[in-house]
Amino acid sequence: MKRLLLLAVSALLLCSCANKSLTRYETLAPVLKKEGFEGTIAKIEKKKDDIYGEKSAFLYHFDEGMLYHYAGKNKESIQQFEQAEKIYEDLYTKSVTNEVAAIATNDNIRPYRARPFEVLMMYQYQILNYLAIGDLDGALVEVRRAQIASEALYQKDKEKVNDNGWLRYLSAIVYEMAGEEDDAAIAYLKAAKAFEEGNVKMPKEVWEYINESLTKMDRADDLKGLKTETLAQTPKASEAREKGQEIIVVGYAGHSPILGEMYLSGTYVSGTAMNLTYKDGKTGNIGSFTVFVPPVAGAGSNTFHVGFALPEKKELPQRTSLFSVNLDGKMRISPEKVADIDSELEQNMKDENATTMVRTATRVILRTIAAQKAKSATNTGNGLLDLVKNIAVDVGQSQLEQADLRIGLFMPNTINVTRIPVTEGTHQVNVSALGAHGQIVGEYKLDNVVVKKGQKKLVVVPAIE
């Protein structure tokens, strides 16, 4: 009896220790707002064991890499992303022991393996980091690593994991900087295909640069195989090539969604299906659906009541939605959206929802069966003691189930980019962060942007509040 009660209490303790994601955002969001990027880094360092822990090691380095990037500390950002990349790669060479453990407890007991769009975003930031410190060779290395990762993720399931247009486009820019025009043209073509397949509409400026590059490399026929109509003229891209210099503005707008819990409950009929009821997080309406669940060992012909939680997207208020760039007090440009992390997360959850639901339901059913057997096997005949014991077992096994809410906390909601052809020399770049209705919510002034002959100068605007 004492042993069983101790087991139930231990289960509760294990559960509370495993799910650190419930408090991570609440702990760090106020710090980001009040103390900025470096203040948030300091807070993470101080409380990393409490709010991340060993199982979320990838996220710890991923989040710090982003914060250092926004703070302009690119070398430190590189180091953090290198650690995140190593963890990501190592997780695919280890045993499935952690997967087995998750069957008995919940998904939070597994090391966090990163979502596909987080992996590709990691390479995007690394490329930009190396460009920011003037290390073109380092940027090229990251471009090639990104290509390998992109192909691996794409081949994993071509209907679920699409390519990333912004990453391909950025790769093409790096190849141009290195004078590798053939590779640039190939990357531009892949960027076009990725945008057509993805969740972001082909940006007009991006399409112009793609047309200009492929036409120049005598590959205009490749454009005919795409859905987007070919351009007869490419004035901006042609001007950039003629002048030889550009200022490239990369704006990070808003804050990507986090994850909350959606609780589902219903009835499982052994070997057939499970009917579930849930509350819609957006509308508050009660909905229901039926999902097939394969036979579970030990279930027999019984019917079980089940309840469990799944992650659901939780959108955050967006202070910044877009940008306006003013060059030398004369030219005003609106960067276009090249990436939408909100949509990436929504698609990723849609892709994984059925698998997550079946895995979670199977785990809950197995634990329910085990709990019923444990209660029967330990009956004492004493009504009060048996009642206390049965309640302890039920509470212990039900509280073990927690949704895996882990996700990178400091991704932007969207990424917006523009390329501006310029003459060699010093320029003034003023970037206004705009709200959803076009109101100015932030100003970023760079008075002395020096552009050398033949250089593509990078300007990063981190408006992720």
Please characterize this protein's 3D structure:
This protein is an alpha+beta fold. The chain has a domain of 100 residues. It is built from 14 helices and 12 strands. A 4-stranded mixed beta sheet has the order 8-9-1-12. A 4-stranded antiparallel beta sheet has the order 4-3-2-5. Strands 7-6-10-11 form a 4-stranded antiparallel beta sheet, with no helix packed on it. Strand 2 and strand 3 form a beta hairpin. Helix 2 crosses helix 3, helix 3 packs antiparallel against helix 4 and helix 7 runs antiparallel to helix 8. It starts with a helix and ends with a strand. The N terminus is likely disordered.
Shape: elongated
Percent range for helical residues?
A: 40-55%
Low-confidence stretches: 1-18, 100-104, 393-398
What about the largest sheet?
4 strands, mixed
Oligomer: single chain
On the 0 to 100 scale, the average pLDDT is 85
Distance between the ends = 52 Å
Going across the biggest sheet, name each strand in turn: 8-9-1-12
Task: Look at the helices and sheets and give the structural class.
Answer: alpha+beta
The secondary-structure element order is HHHHHHHHHHHHEEEEEEEEHHEEEE
Computed CA radius of gyration, to the nearest angstrom: 26 Å
Number of strands: 12
Strand percentage: 15-25%
Instruction: Quickly count the helices.
Output: 14
